[in-house]
Design brief:
Helix content is about 35%, strand content about 20%. The protein has seven helices and seven strands.
Length: about 210
């Protein structure tokens, strides 16, 4: 009879590749008008007591990269739950994109259903004082809100820091060309206080609405 399945290693940002990737991402997202960041004081410092969920709005493909770039590596290191497909795309998934994502501490999530493995991985990251990134809208411009961020916050007993990200493109700039300015605003942390999943999710929705 097979024994219990041992959990894999805790996803961890690579100590020196993470800053290198962070720098390269910055060259892409900050090209043109740069990135204006506010509210970094709401984020804890990385360390054993630094467990936090960063839950953001999601309208553009570069949103996760921009939010990650907005957080200096010396402050904390953001680890996203990333759709499993990105790790498995033919050839470039296993041999290029996947290794880069793993170097940032990202880990795969199956968005077709309830992925308990990704949930356990998130809790282990948070328990070690990590920072987990998640989009309650699920996909870009998703119409509904998912309760994943609230579920993690309630189980791990860590705060959710809401963040709103958007891109300002000059009218003269043709669509598809790089340029324009990104705005990233972090809000005060939302600490679970006997909330239900829906209640905490609605608190997040109200918080990002005023950022």
């Amino acid at each position: 009879m097979p024994g219990p399945v041992k959990p894999g290693p805790i996803p961890t940002p690579h100590p020196w590749l993470y800053p290198v990737i962070h720098w390269f991402v910055g060259r892409v997202v900050a090209y043109g008008g740069g990135v204006r960041v506010s509210g970094l004081q709401h984020l804890p410092h990385g360390g054993p007591a630094g467990g936090v969920i960063v839950a953001g709005t999601h309208a553009m493909a570069l949103d996760p990269f921009t939010i990650g770039y907005a957080i200096p590596p010396k402050l904390h290191r953001l680890q996203f739950m990333t759709k499993r497909d990105a790790f498995e795309w033919k050839i470039i998934g296993p041999h290029a994109i996947g290794p880069i994502l793993r170097a940032t501490g990202a880990f795969p999530v199956d968005r077709s259903g309830r992925d308990t493995r990704a949930l356990r991985q998130s809790l282990r990251v948070l328990g070690r004082g990590g920072m987990v990134g998640i989009f309650p809208q699920g996909t870009r411009n998703g119409q509904g809100l998912h309760g994943g961020a609230a579920l993690l916050a309630l189980k791990a007993k860590v705060p959710i820091v809401p963040v709103r990200v958007w891109h300002e493109r000059p009218k003269w700039l043709p669509r598809g060309l790089p340029g324009g300015r990104w705005q990233v605003r972090f809000g005060p942390p939302l600490y679970p206080q006997g909330d239900s999943l829906r209640g905490l999710t609605l608190r997040w929705e109200n918080a990002v609405a005023v950022l």
